[in-house]
Write a structure and sequence with these properties.
Blueprint lengths: L1 E2 L13 E2 L5 H8 L6 H4 L11 H12 L5 E4 L6 H11 L5 E4 L6 H6 L6 E2 L3 E2 L5 H6 L10 H9 L5 E5 L3 H4 L11 E6 L4 H4 L3 E4 L8 E4 L4 E5 L11 H11 L35 H8 L11 H11 L7 H5 L4 E2 L34 H19 L1
Parallel strand pairs: 1-2, 3-4, 7-8, 8-9
Antiparallel strand pairs: 5-6, 10-11, 11-12
Helix pairs in contact: 1-4
Length: about 375
């Protein structure tokens, strides 16, 4: 284990090397073959094997002799540093790299195209892909990242600012007056600093008040089933669909119909007992009598899962196993080439994981973890 702090995981580590704060980039360069980088990560002020350059070289050679190595790295490794780790790992048989994400579904959001310049599956907005064929018109120009939105807001060119499950004003210390000339909509669980300055606030359901899926850091896909209904909130997906409907989009296109590749998953429109308990499905009988075919509602999360499994590379997994409660591993095979993004636009959650107001705000236990950590940090600084 290599870290700038003596974290608890060192107790299970076969070897722990403590490095000066901010030197993670130099470690990646050294592992990739840059021996000169070892000079900057050797610190006489830290009592550990890092004080010896020979120890670093010995560690690198030992790792090169391993097989099926798993390299786990956090947000300290960004941009070109990731390329250096990949270069190092590529020379070792069976190596896997795991990029730790802050939230449970960060990997899923990335896979689904939550980037200003990428479609789901990391395909570029320009060119030709299954999404261009399925969706028809896809904007060729890339969108704005957060920094671009801030600059557009300051210039008065950002007509609307729609924030879903994020708190940029509170977490990133963005001046709220930046968006004073924009129409601001915030869709969130709590009245965050960003929501306070919004023109419209849409109360969103939490993870256990809605159904859907999430993909963890290693690419394992799991179903999330709604545990309860709360009056006054709606799932993020339903709110976005209703917004699209109000803006003129034909939301019926969200549920494919017909046969062949565009055929969607059929459902019973919400009937909950039916044949399972020996009763006649009167709703389905009525639909058939009227010459109608039972279809999913555009608000049904399984409808979007159907589209994901048809179109997103690596997500064509067993629906039966998912419904049985098992996780299914997705693959990055056949995804687009992706692009390298500005490392400065990545803002790790750090200690704000549970206290920023986007995941939790009223749990004393969770908040006490952060508070006690901050107190200890202050004591260390004082010493």
């Amino acid at each position: 284990m290599i870290n700038s702090n003596p974290i608890k995981l060192r107790r299970q580590a076969a070897s722990f090397i403590q490095i000066p704060l901010g030197m993670e980039s130099q470690v990646a360069k050294f592992l990739a073959g840059d021996d000169a980088a070892a000079e900057s990560i050797v610190s006489p002020s830290i009592v550990s094997p890092s004080t010896n350059k020979d120890a670093w070289i010995a560690l690198r050679e030992k790792l090169r002799g391993e097989q099926n190595l798993v390299i786990v790295f956090g947000s300290e490794i960004l941009g070109a540093d990731v390329s250096n780790l990949v270069k190092f790992g590529s020379a070792i048989a069976g190596t896997k790299l795991v990029c730790l994400a802050d939230y449970a579904n960060s990997r899923g959001a990335a896979d689904m195209g939550l980037y200003p310049d990428l479609l789901p599956g990391y395909h570029p907005t320009s060119g030709s892909s299954e999404f261009h064929q399925e969706w028809g018109e896809v904007p060729q120009a890339v969108g704005l990242d957060l920094q671009g939105m801030v600059e557009a807001g300051k210039a008065g060119k950002l007509k609307a600012f729609y924030v879903v499950g994020s708190n940029p004003v509170g977490r990133l210390n963005i001046d709220p007056f930046t968006f004073s000339k924009s129409f601001v909509v915030v869709q969130d669980m709590f009245l965050t600093e960003t929501a306070v300055m919004a023109d419209v606030v849409l109360p969103a359901a939490n993870a256990y008040e809605k159904s859907g899926t999430f993909t963890n850091t290693c690419g394992d896909l799991q179903l999330v089933k709604k545990a309860g209904e709360v009056t006054g909130t709606k799932a993020d997906f339903e709110m976005i669909v209703r917004m699209a409907d109000a803006m003129g989009f034909d939301v019926r296109k969200l549920v494919p119909f017909g046969e062949g590749v565009r055929a969607g998953t059929k459902a019973d429109m919400g009937q909950s007992r039916g044949a399972q308990s020996g009763e006649a499905d009167r709703h389905a009988v009525w639909l058939e009598a009227q010459g109608l075919e039972p279809k999913m509602s555009p608000f049904e999360p399984t409808a979007i899962l159907d589209e994901i499994q048809r179109l997103v590379p690596g997500y064509d997994v067993s629906r039966m196993n998912l419904l049985a409660g098992n996780s299914q591993h997705t693959s990055l095979a056949n995804v687009g080439p992706g692009v390298q993004h500005n490392a400065q636009s990545i803002a790790p959650a750090k200690d704000n994981l549970f206290s920023s107001g986007t995941l939790g705000r009223y749990s004393r236990a969770l908040k006490s973890v952060v508070e006690s950590h901050e107190v200890k940090a202050a004591e260390v600084a004082a010493d």
